[in-house]
Amino acid sequence: MTRHLFISLRITLALLVLTCGVYPAVVWAVAQTAFPHQANGSMLVRDGKTIGSELIGQDFADPRFFHPRPSSGNYDPSASGGTNLGMTSKKLLGTLASRTASYADVKPANGIPADAVTASCSGVDPHISPANAASQAPRVAAANHLPLARVQQLIASRTEGRFVGVFGEARVNVLLLNLDLRDAHRDAGP
């Protein structure tokens, strides 16, 4: 019996070293070598300052910028998660009605995009649909004194297709689009 106990302990220690030491070190080394930007959180740095991650949505309330999807966690990644309210929930219906009412003055040509009034499951989704971006384009163009066509070009340049051409939907990264918008506004001058 003692012999079996020592064999079990040796196997446990060997697996501990492999799974908790060697394997994570190899994965870390490969990630840092092959994908350093992604492995370090896809952080964006402008003018020497970290301004955010491509993977985590941020709140942009200023009318000069594109707004992200609503967040049930106030864009806090540590509070990530949805509301878990069902379609029969009066609270959810009231929230949707309130968000829809904020579009009363916009009146998008093709209706209000669903992702403009519904929160993502994570609450920190960095993307919006191209339709959502297009519905915000007139407001953003006017607030930045840019031609609508220029803002639409920015949206088109930041529109990502389906993953591998099959999975998901087309999407626009809000932070990257707003950075492009800031640069276009800066280039346009006063």
Polypeptide structure, described:
The chain is mostly helical. The chain folds into two domains: 1-40; 43-188, no CATH class. The protein has six helices and five strands. The protein has helices at 2-34, 36-39, 90-101, 130-144, 148-158, 174-188; strands at 43-46, 49-53, 127-128, 159-160, 171-173. The strands form two sheets. A three-stranded antiparallel beta sheet has the order 3-5-4. A hairpin with a 2-residue loop joins strand 1 and strand 2 (49-53). The chain is elongated, with a radius of gyration of 23 Å. The mean pLDDT is 85.
Based on the model shown, name its key terms.
190 residues; 5 strands; two-stranded antiparallel ribbon; three-stranded antiparallel β-sheet; 6 helices; 2 domains; mainly alpha
The average pLDDT is 85
Rough outline: elongated
Number of strands: 5
Count of folded domains:
2
Helix and strand content put the structural class at mainly alpha
**Biggest beta-sheet profile:** 3 strands, antiparallel
Write the H/E string, N to C.
Answer: HHEEHEHHEEH
Compose a concise summary of this entry.
With 190 residues, the chain is mainly α. It is 47% helix and 8% strand. It is built from 6 helices and 5 strands.
Helices and strands, with pairings:
Layout: H1 2-34, H2 36-39, E1 43-46, E2 49-53, H3 90-101, E3 127-128, H4 130-144, H5 148-158, E4 159-160, E5 171-173, H6 174-188
Antiparallel strand pairs: 1-2, 3-5, 4-5
Helix pairs in contact: 4-5, 5-6
